Amino acid sequence: MRSAVAVVTDSTAYLPAGLAERHGLTVVPLQIAVGGATRDEGDISAAEAAQALKEWRPITTSRPAPERFAQVYKAAASSGAGRIVSVHLSAALSGTVEAARLAARDAPVPVTVVDSGTIGMGLGFAALSAAATAMSGGTAEAAASAAVRRAELTRSLIYVDTLEHLRRGGRIGAAATLLGSALMVKPLLDIADGRIAPLEKVRTSSRALARLEELAVAEAGERRVDLGVQHLFASARAEALAARLRERVPHVEDVYVGEVGPVIGAHVGPGMLGVVVAPHL
Questions:
Q1: pLDDT per residue as tens digits for the range 82-118
Q2: Nearest Cα to Cα of residue 104 among 96, 250, 129
Q3: Alpha helix (H) ranges present in the chain?
Q4: Most CB within 10 Å of its CB: which of 4, 21, 45, 105?
C-alpha cells in the first residue's frame, strides 16, 4: 500500500540497486558534464568518470533544476501522496536543497525539504529512515525528524589518494590545511557541519586504510548500526574492508558495499574508500 507521505532523495545517496524501490523512495539525479556533454548522473558509469579523472579531463557537476523537482512532486501528488518529504545532500556542498525548496513553493501538496548535512550513504541512511517512518504510517513531520536524527547520528569517514580533485572542485574546505604536505601524507577526512573536513594525516596508504578501519570500529562501538562501505575504482579493497568490519563490529545489522557515482567521484578521485557508520534510531 502506498504511503500517504512520499519520500524523495537525490542520486548522491548512492543506494544499492533496488533498495530505493523497495522503500518507495524516488531518486532525483544530479547532473555531470564530461567533455562538455551534460548527462544525468545515472547515465554515466563510475568507470567512465574514473577514467576521465585519471586522465585529468575536466568534469563538472551541477544540481538538478527546480523544474525536475517540480515534476517529481507533481507525480507524487498525482499518485496519492498528501505530503512529501525531500531529503538531500548537504547544502554546504551543493545547491540541490535550494532547488528542492524553490520547487516546493509551488508544489500541489506540502513539501518538507531536509538538508541532511551529509552525502553518500550518510544521506542514504537518512532517506531510508524517513521512508521507513512513512511506510509505517508516520506523519511527514515524523519522517523528516527521523531523517534529521539519523543524519545527526551518522559518521562518514573518508580516505582519498590525493586532495587534488577536491581542490580542483572547490570542495576542499577546511581540508585545505593538509595541502601543504599533501604529497607526503594520505589524508583521512570526515564530514563536519556539512563540509568535508580534515581528520588525520597518515604517512602511507596501508596505514591510512588500517586507521580508517579502526576509526569505523570505534565509532560503531556497542551500538546497533548499519554500515556503508563506498569506493571509487577500488572494489577489492572495499569488499575486503567490509568483510573485516562484519567480523569486528559486534552489532552490525546491514553492510552495504558500493561504488560512488561520478558526482562524488569527480571530487574525491579514483582510490577513494569511505565508511559510513549509521546507528539505529
A1: 999 999 999 999 999 999 999 999 999 999 999 999 9
A2: 96
A3: 19-22, 46-54, 66-78, 96-104, 121-135, 140-153, 164-169, 205-220, 235-248, 262-268
A4: 4
Per-residue pLDDT tens for 250-264?
999 999 999 998 888
Query: Length of the chain in residues, anyone?
Result: 281
Query: Cα 34 to chain center, whole Å?
Result: 21
CA distance 158 to 229: 10
Under 8 Å between Cβ of 101 and 88: no
Query: What whole-number distance in Å separates Cα of residue 178 and Cα of residue 71?
Result: 42
Give CA–CA dist 218/272, Å, rounded: 21
CB distance 37 to 43 below 8 Å: no
**pLDDT mean over 128-150:** 97
pLDDT of residue 180: 45
